Amino acid sequence: MEQRRAGVGLTGFASMPPVAAARPSPDELEILLRIRGVLAGNRFALLTGAGLSTDSGIPDYRGPGSPPRTPMTYQEFTKDAANRQRYWARNHIGWSHLRHADPNQGHHASAELERRGYLTGLITQNVDRLHEDAGSVNVVDLHGRYDQVVCLDCRRTYSRRLLAGVLEELNPEFLPRAAETGLVEMAPDADATVEDQALISSFVVAVCPACGGTLKPDFVYFGENVPKERVERAYGMVDDAGALVVAGSSLTVMSGLRFVRHAARDGKPVIIINRGQTRGDDKATIKLEAGVSEALSWLAAELPAL
User: Fold this and answer.
1) Predicted confidence (pLDDT) per residue in 246-303, tens digit
2) What is the second-level CATH architecture of the domain 68-100+144-219?
3) Which of 20, 45, 58, 150 has CB 3.0 to 4.6 Å from 218, enough for a Cys bridge?
């Protein structure tokens, strides 16, 4: 596994301390006690979204205060070389900062819940691999992983770290010039928005070293389907569980919402922890609007032994 270097970049990434019990407000504590009552002695599946990684300095897509984002679709990426150039230029900037992100208390709490035997599995919509860095083992990276790239022609996969070296050789002055321009904003998939279009248009895109084909980050774009085997494995985690906990997801896209609907159809408790409204609120047995990392840390500390 690639070792992340702690530090502060343009996005303010920094190391996080180990999991510890949070101090919820009285209203939050009342709801957390209800959640503990449902989950105590009951193995559950955990579904996480971008709201869990915000404490690691990674912006989410739809949380309160998040700027409007229009991610590139799979169709836009594959059909237009100019779009690929724009995407890879922005991704090269974003990746150079995202790779410094460290797991936060919520990621450590998720790993602790797994170690204690509470989780049937962890399904994450995030591509940042912070769950694995925190020690989680039984993880479905539903939308793929940012640390790999895949060739759309020969299907070989490569390390994103290796590709970064290739891109730096092809574009030796790009990152220093981008740093002078400034990072406007970054998205959870390592995309970054920059003002300087001339800088973007100067970027040289790498091709597959094996076949000369088109390289793409190994995660699911909007307009692209989640691989069937991942979906089936995630459903298995929900089927094996007595409850489903959603942490930090607005459930806007069907790839996550389907598991909430599946659990609800089976009569299983659905607990949603998220700041702001979600598409699954009507299926929730309990909804907690609170910090995701703090809530998971409290549960990891307060749930009794199985």
Assistant:
1) 999 999 999 999 999 999 999 999 999 999 999 999 999 999 999 999 999 999 999 9
2) 2-Layer Sandwich (3.30)
3) 150
